[in-house]
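Give me structure tokens for this 311-residue protein.
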Amino acid sequence: MNTLRGVIAAAATPLTDDHAIDLDRLVGHCNALLDEGGCDGINLLGTTGEATSFSVEQRLGAMRAVAGSGLPLSRFMVGTGAAAFDDACRLTTEAKALGYAGALLLPPFYYKGIDPDAVVAYVTAVIERVGRDGLSLYLYHFPANSGVPYAPEAVARLRDRFPETLKGLKDSTGDLDYSGGLARSLPGFDVFPSAEASIGRAAELGLAGCISATANVTGRFAQAAFTGRSHEERSQALAEAVRIRGEIARFPLVAAVKETLALLSGDAIWRRMMPPLEPLAAPDREALAKALASTALFEERPARGMAGRSA
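Here you go.
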């Protein structure tokens, strides 16, 4: 049975002062997300993790560090998309070999105007190069960044062709008609929208959970919204998670997530960004801190307790 379900954080990536991945802090952050952070799983090296700004070797190093840390890889999917076909295949092969529960594949994202036939051919070529045996592949639909969508017809064709390999899709469009439509039309195919608000309609739409950038900091609220014992508990937690995300999303999202982590931890290294992204400017930092101070984010953190469910 697939274990990647529920609240999944698109983990931010801590950096050293020379723009290398801080592997020790990365492992520690992932551990915290799976423990007191309330998350069922982690999407390592995704958009929030600034993955496409790192070299293949840097990404492989992070994948191996997490794999060697003793953290449960059954609770991790890892981004393996790359502009170059060979790079995507190499990263996906390593994800499979290391034992990650899933590889999250962007479409090829340099050339635009790629039609569904070409997208199907690309994913087919990746699967054939990597090998189906032991491969759990998820598609990453983020046309605002990639410029290339995973059209529903392409997803359906790939699922029909590779039913044991193609496990699900992350949808970063915010279009619940798209997410819900795929979930309804492809039974057993796990669809994850990218914002906490979708949790409120997960049961209705047949969604597997959410994969969210802001779950780096909202995980315990999102978990309560997903698995709380009462309707009131779930509703209150969802409202708080949505409120916190709304304040963070007023600013460039990756920088604002990292700024929030810096505020919560007292560790300024979280403000470091991989070029071309930049940290929030001082006025925005002050505005974000002021806005978040009125939320439950900085209240004493409860034990995970009722969140209890693990992936």
